[in-house]
Amino acid sequence: MENTYPRPDFTRKNLTWTSLNGPWSFLFDDANTGLTEQWQATGLPTSTAHHKKTTITVPYAFQTPASGINLQEAHEVIWYERSISDIRTPAQRDLGNNHLVLRFGAVDYECSVWVDGRLYAEHRGGQVPFDVDITGAFPPSAAAAGEVRRRVTIRVRDSPTDLTQPRGKQYWGPVPESIFYTPTSGIWQGVWVESVPRVRVRDASGGTVLRGDVGQGRLEGVVAIAGRPALERCTVGVVVSLAGEEVGRQTGEVPVGEDSVEISVDMRVSGDVAGKIRREAGITDGAWQDGVALWAPEHPNLYDIAISLSGEDGTVVDEVHTTIGMRSISWENGDGTFRLNGKPYFQALVLDQGYWPDTGLTPPSPDALKADIEMSKKMGFNGCRKHQKVEDPVFLYWADRLGYLVWDEIGNAYEFSHEYVERFNDEWSQVVKRDRNHPSVVVWTPINESWGYKNLKDNVKERHHIRFLYSLTKSLDPTRPINDNCGWEHIQTDLTTYHDYSDSAQLADICSKMEGGILARKLNGEMFTDPIRHQGDVVDPGSDHKPGAPVICSEFGGVNIAPAKDTEGSSRDWGYTTASDPKDLLARLERLVMAVVKGGHTCGFVYTQLSDIEQEVNGLYSYDRREKVPADKVKAIFDAATEYYYANVAPKA
């Protein structure tokens, strides 16, 4: 993991960085005395009354074998420590041209960062990245004596039992069970130190937004700037290329006193240039529209974007490289379709929860993320619902390039409170900002199955919060549909989604009708009807299903295979329904998939799930990613379902 830059979707020219993955000192602080005893100032002690200092392999959580600790125990407060050096060149350091930034992919849940005892940052939110500018720890005077190393100390608090803390599938009980898994505490995505220009282009999280307007054939957006003195003049240049050919550019001065500039670049090409690009990139007629190459799973064309930032004298002080896919999504078509690039598009998705046997939530390598997408496509899926997890950004990098739709989601909490609302609003905003430039992301899903909202029918505050999340998400990104409360009690949504793990006969009946079928499903053993009702009266009209809105079965299936007679079953072999053998699994899969599609109301589905995870063994692949059934046979089933939709359900052009 050390040789691959952790953010390949946003790289700098002359990139200088060093991975900090690997061994760190580590200590449990069960008595929570570290702050009182000033460990950040003195260094981690060799031992406490309860624990000895040990070594952990970052970025793996202490609960995983890959960490070198592998303890499935509850420890609320943990500490990390290691030394780092200044990776800037002498000129960058002495002239103050570059800053030194410590970057964290994700740390679960509350984190404080010190360098040589000085507090540099505090961050809350276990699923999103954050940066720490530590330039002040390495002044030019200190470097005069030679290489200087500084001690980085990190304190993490992650409550094992606080159900208002967004946690996803991390279980709060002593032993994982059912659909819940081993917790993840502390650093679980990569850590690295990077030399960045003092005045620089911000990434998507920092406000740089890039959107392709297919209808106008333009790149639209905002380039955000960091570190700019208030009166210093600077200029932004944007160059757009495809297959090595420049297709558009723009140069504009950033207004004095502002930290961003709007961009609009015409990307349409014609004549010889268009012909050359299409030949070089192999772009067919179906992937070309009015001089623009379209992005879709079948043809994931990406434009290269170079953004330069120049100072007052015209010298380029920063240059970043990223990509954009030109594709349109529409969902308010009035005919029940989800449309990609103007045409009805059937989403055959898989539920992907992103766990691995030795590393838990952390991918064992960047290649493992690419491999999961390739495994999914091999079985005929054209995308996934990334479930209850904010995946490593490398996943979206490969989804963009391999042509893979992604429903973006966040790990939920399980209890509603004022503190939960503040926590969730903040972290969800960071997720949307981080991922909104990726063409592969096509749906936002903030909430799953009313998790954290136990009384939506009677608690108007709970309903107002989901409505607020809808509006918040729209304000950050109006270009994608929102699935407000996946599969459950909708409050304000663009998609009507439903979950049903019934066997095929019952599922076929449910999917064949809206009233009394799709819109009437079981909740905790009792029937509820969408919209939310109380004693037969509609109490929240905003939750009505909008006639003509896309209807998607966003969870179904979950079939496991009965364990062999000589192995233990029970809770360690959990699934929603059970097949007798691989052949029976294939037969059940075909009946379930066709039950959803032949009902005639559904324009997409999410099958549960891609791979086994711990005791939940209802994946199409085993936990270690071995096929349970031949991939080509699974693909044939999903291909047949997709063909049926286009032939019999989708409106004809």
Automatic annotation (TrEMBL):
Residues 291-327 form the Glycoside hydrolase family 2 immunoglobulin-like beta-sandwich domain. Residues 367-512 form the Glycoside hydrolase family 2 catalytic domain. Residues 19-136 form the Glycosyl hydrolases family 2 sugar binding domain. One of its GO terms (molecular function) is hydrolase activity. It comes from the Eukaryota. Keywords: Glycosidase, Hydrolase. InterPro entries: Beta-gal/glucu_dom_sf, Galactose-bd-like_sf, GH, GH2_Domain-Containing, Glyco_hydro_2_cat, Glyco_hydro_2_N, Ig-like_fold, Ig-like_GH2. Belongs to the glycosyl hydrolase 2 family. This is Glycoside hydrolase superfamily. It comes from Aspergillus lucknowensis. The lineage of its organism: Eukaryota, Fungi, Dikarya, Ascomycota, Pezizomycotina.
